[in-house]
Design a protein that fits this description.
The chain is mainly α. The protein is built from nine helices and two strands.
Length: 238
């Protein structure tokens, strides 16, 4: 049997299984995506997971919008780990996430990234009128957003295409050795912007602050930033 015939047979079985498992209400864009895949996902949850994986920038926008809906928890400030048993992030490079801290967590049924309720199949809206899913603590979209924020280099190909393969620093053609960079370096976010409202802070890890630049431009930018850090450290020391 040829590979194309094997794939078609597998997809027929997957479509039949997906159709049987679909709830009466299901997000239309997700279903369209699933049925147009080379390999059809056999279950609704896999279809939703695949949809957000294929649209990480859309997931990023959604997560930041949900965070704005939740707002900054009362009494929360962006802090770093002070001891080995702390649940705070160890570095300013990790996105601030108040709802992942024990003091501010909303518990089962609420996303630990954006703080909003998690509904059936990890969706962010209660399309089924069944209330939050008490077995979930992540939106499927927020999982993808968290990966983008913590490892943006994994999405370099998508970002290059978004920039029409032009270096964001020089405007020249992007080479294969180009690298993902934060426009505003994260050390400056920690030093200068940590008092901002939490939802606004997330933009420094998301698409608004991401760019792809050629390695030579990145090296020069990092050197200039290192000089700035040294000067600031000298001023503080004095």
């Amino acid at each position: 049997m040829k590979m194309s015939e094997t794939r078609e047979l597998q997809n027929q079985r997957a479509r039949a299984r997906l159709t049987r498992a679909l709830p009466a209400i299901f997000p239309a864009p997700v279903l369209t995506y699933a049925l147009n895949r080379r390999w059809t996902p056999p279950m609704p949850r896999l279809a939703i997971d695949g949809y957000w994986r294929a649209h990480p920038l859309r997931a990023d926008r959604l997560t930041r919008a949900l965070a704005r809906r939740s707002g900054t928890p009362q009494g929360w400030t962006w802090r770093l780990q002070e001891g080995p048993k702390s649940d705070l992030p160890a570095s300013f490079r990790v996105p601030p996430a108040p709802y992942r801290e024990k003091k501010f967590t909303r518990g089962a049924g609420f996303c630990c990234v954006c703080g909003q309720p998690v509904y059936r199949l990890g969706w962010h809206e209660d399309l089924w009128d069944r209330g939050p899913n008490r077995n979930a603590t992540w939106h499927t979209a927020c999982v993808v957003s968290w990966r983008l924020w913590n490892a943006p280099s994994d999405y370099a190909k998508l970002l290059r295409r978004l920039q029409q393969r032009r270096c964001a620093e020089t405007g020249a053609r992007l080479w294969k050795t180009s690298e993902v960079d934060h426009r505003v370096p994260l050390f400056r976010v920690w030093r200068e912007h940590r008092a901002m409202e939490w939802p606004a802070l997330l933009a420094f890890w998301g698409l608004p602050n991401l760019q792809v630049i050629n390695r030579e431009a990145h090296t020069a930018k990092c050197a200039a930033e290192a000089g700035t850090r040294r000067r600031v450290a000298d001023v503080i020391a004095v």
